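input
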Amino acid sequence: MKELLDAIKAEIEVFSKNAEAQLVKGNKAAGTRARKAALNLSKMMKDFRKVSMDASR
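output
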């Protein structure tokens, strides 16, 4: 679970950096990377939910 949490934190950093670049600088490629990171985060959060539920049983 620790590894998953670390991966989520790293992906949040990637998303934040790229979303900021799109917003501030109008960088379209950064927007694409931010959307990809958001999709990855969605998948990771589902995995986290499964792992968390198993750990609490």
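quick obs: The radius of gyration is 14 Å.
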